[in-house]
Amino acid sequence: MKSTVRIPPLAAVLAALLTLPAMTSAQYEDTGTRGTHFSKKAYSGVAIPRFDAHRAALPAPILQNDPQFVDLYWKAWALAFDHFKRPPAGSPFVSDYIDEAFSPSVFQWDTIFMLMFARYGHAVFPAVRSLDNFYSRQYENGYICREIQEADGADFVFVGREHTVNPPLFAWAEVESYRVTGDSSRFAAVFPPLVKYAEWIERHRRTPGTVHGLYWNTGLGSGMDNLPLTGSAWVDMSSQMMLFYGNLSFIAGVIGRESDAQRFRAMADTIGARMNRYLWNEEDGFYYNADDQGRQQRLRSVAGFWPMLAGAADERKARRLLEHLLDPDEFWRAMPFPSLAADEPQYAPDGRYWLGGVWAPTNVMIVKGLERYGRTGGNPTDHGFNEVAAEAAERYLDGLAAVFRKTGTLWENYSPDLMMRGSPSQKDFVGWTGCGPVQLLIENVIGLRPDGARRALTWHLRRIDRHGIERLRFGDVTATLIGQARTSVAAPADLHVVSDRPFTLTVVRPDGSSVTFAVRSGAQRFTVTF
Fold this sequence. Notes:
Number of helices: 15
Distance between the termini: 49 Å
């Protein structure tokens, strides 16, 4: 299907950043026509599943030495099933959805991060369709409000419209869902609204006349409400736009729009180059916000790590950022990673929301950013990026499990130092907090990274206890993979695999070397030596 959306040439977009007027009123102009760029117009849904009836259809983790993580995993899913919803009668929403359930609205970036774990239950409830409701309420000019009321589909505006632009992560969520499901059928339909949204951000989230040509947001808009960030070049928003264009390039490639893929890749690279020129501080080894003239705001917060996920940081810069993450005086606290470095004057040990609180979305961002860099080579005693990602995920889950034992539930955010819920923090908050017990457990603690479209699975094997997962579904494959207990990390690993279809299994050792097996249907055993 060909998109009718006009995509401006790269040169025109870059020139526009210095010449476009603010158009404050026009940017939020609602013509009364919503969802014109999205082909789905009418509601279609599925029966809302019950946890007790569908638990046996979900992947089941096995962790001999960490049963508390398994308990946390099932608690997250039990809460998640209570958050699967059908639109209220009279709502213009077009799909069933998952929501955070503390408000009568759906929130953009909350929903996106809920999908990061809910995609592992796609066969039970296709949560990625939650994004349909945002596309269907998109303005004709491309604007999508960060918060939309469930009952009537109206925008909910808190304080002011300038705060209603959330991190632009729709394309990332679509691609990450695709990596598990292997289903590219959504891409043709979501490409036009995504492109139109990017065009709107280009027009209205760049300040004319700056030296850097990068993107801005507000505290509420960024999702990090009370984190004291300012400037016209925001590290997180600029990185998110780089990530947006990178994922748009990927989507365009899958649906056969190669020239668009190249254009968006070039736009992503241009943003990365500008970030490295204006936002990277070589003395500190960190990325900061900047004002119109490029003067940096030297505040160390989790925003400074988004360039790793976006791919703006080269390996040397990523290593400098890793030093900050591993510094116990900054981000390597009892529960990683606080939203503000612990040696910043405004840091709050109890969290105080974004003045130190530990949050699932930024932890996912950091862990997934670390994954991009793998091992750096060099001294084998150095911490590899994948190793730190795994250790951080385990340390984070240790904290969640400790609070779960005391309170019996999950929380919106956590204290970095006190092994307590954050202050303030919503309870029974599977929302994005489900990312830790489900997504990070599967991908970083157990170490399984699926590629559903290619019928491929990568297993980063580093544990020595009996561990693995039953009924992991990726693409059209459902497989059980169990690593038997061994005496040391140097001992051979005996892997038992049962699959309903053939797939390719790549096992990555802690040193970064790998071995690949062709898995057949049925039961097999493989041995990996170290």
